[in-house]
Amino acid sequence: MKITLLQNYQNTLEQSLEKLKTSSTPLSKQEVIEILLIRDAIHKALSNKIKPSANAILKIEVLDIKLRENAEKLIQDINLAEYRENFPKTPNAWWWYLDNYVEEKAKKFHPWNRFDWLVRVIRVIVWTGNLALLGTLASLFLSSASGLGGAVTIAIPSILSLLQAQSELTETGKKGFDKVLDKVKIPQHFHEEAKLVYSLLMTGLLLVIWLNLPFFSNRYKLAGKKLQEQEKLASAEEKYLQAIKLDSENLDAHYKLATLYEELQDFSNAKKQYIIAAKGGFLDAYNNLAYWYIRENKNGEGIDLLRQGLQLLEEKEKNFEQLTDKEKLNLQTQKYNIYKNIGWVRFKQKRYDDSVAYLLPAMAIAKNSKYQQYIRNPGTAFCIYTQILSRTNKPSSKVKENWQQCRQLIESRLAAGETINSEEDEWLYEAKQQLKINN
């Protein structure tokens, strides 16, 4: 290596540093580039097969240390990234990357960066939790019944998590994320904290979805109800099952699924869903489940359920004035069903006085036009009551009047295209026969 080249490097660098000491004016671009070009020349000389002296090597080392130590002052008025882009340099030419060196040095020694290791640990923990929660949510939403809404709900956090994974696990992703932070003017020493905030925001988004699972469950339940009304029973079943999958405590979904299974004549699954809803305190489920026990002549089990349902009914009646009109209407239909079924059980047990005590208020509700159209089987109470009258030798005119009411209410349902159960079918037949005899 020519000693004049090394001396030139030393003189130029020292003169530049001296200028910076005595003046507040930064070096010009030309002066900085001159230093870097001389360093290029030394590198080229070292790359040749000429053996440099030990003294020269030691001298270069000292000068390079000075260059690094004063890098921030030397390059404060020049954008080295532009020169690297226009005149590509390899990473071995580290002097052309002094801006990166300055940045890393600032990052290392900035007070805010002392705890970056702790921030990274917290971020890894949060990120791991996010992935676990995302996996759970994905398993809940990604099914055929979820539809477009469910797919979109889980797609957004999935994409954001994928981007975060790329920024955490790949060098390209990390640099890309850092560039985004630079563009939004976040100081470099706050980058780790900014990444933690991003992870926490992701946690917040996932938690919002998690905490709103009952809301999504209710949406699927309503979709199932609509499909059931349209006689699309297979699709309705999928929606109800999806609603229960998202929120196993959605008792109304269990109840409506039970009614659907009842339509499908799948009585085993219907009873299972009624039991789940009843155990959760869903009033209509007590009544419907009791009905199946009564049909199977399990009157003891049936009356136990009806008593529990009656207790719930009485609790609701205590706050009757605070209920909305729709809730009041629903309460009256529930009251009819509970009273009618208690009357039916007592009739089957031949406890006629107890039966009449519940059938009379049930009949009063069924006679009310405001409630009658919402009751599934308004004629049943009259049919049971008429049989009691017949067996207790009541006046024939009263018996006939109630048989007519029994027949009229059942036939009106048939005329409206509704279905009736086997008991109603038998009672309708008996009503017709008794009315023929009395005529």
SSE blueprint and pairings:
Elements: H1 3-22, H2 29-47, H3 54-69, H4 71-74, H5 80-86, H6 98-109, H7 116-141, H8 147-169, H9 171-183, H10 191-211, H11 213-229, H12 233-246, H13 251-263, H14 267-279, H15 283-295, H16 299-318, H17 325-348, H18 352-367, H19 369-372, H20 380-391, H21 396-415, H22 422-438
Helix pairs in contact: 1-2, 1-3, 7-8, 7-10, 8-9, 8-10, 11-12, 11-13, 12-13, 13-14, 14-15, 15-16, 15-17, 16-17, 17-18, 17-20, 18-20, 20-21, 21-22
Describe the structure.
The chain has 22 helices and no strands. With 439 residues, the protein is mainly alpha-helical. Among the domains are: 3-109, no CATH class; 112-211. The chain is rod-shaped and about 135 Å long. The chain starts with a helix and ends with a helix. The mean pLDDT is 83.
Mean pLDDT: 83
Structural class: mainly alpha
Biggest sheet features: none
What is the alpha-carbon Rg in Å? 42 Å
Could you say which overall geometry the principal axes of the C-alpha atoms support? rod-shaped
H/E element sequence: HHHHHHHHHHHHHHHHHHHHHH
Question: Roughly what percent helix?
Answer: over 70%
Q: Uncertain spans, ≥5 residues at pLDDT below 50?
A: none
Number of strands: 0
Distance between the termini: 133 Å
Q: Into which percentage range does the β-strand content fall?
A: under 5%
- The number of helices is 22
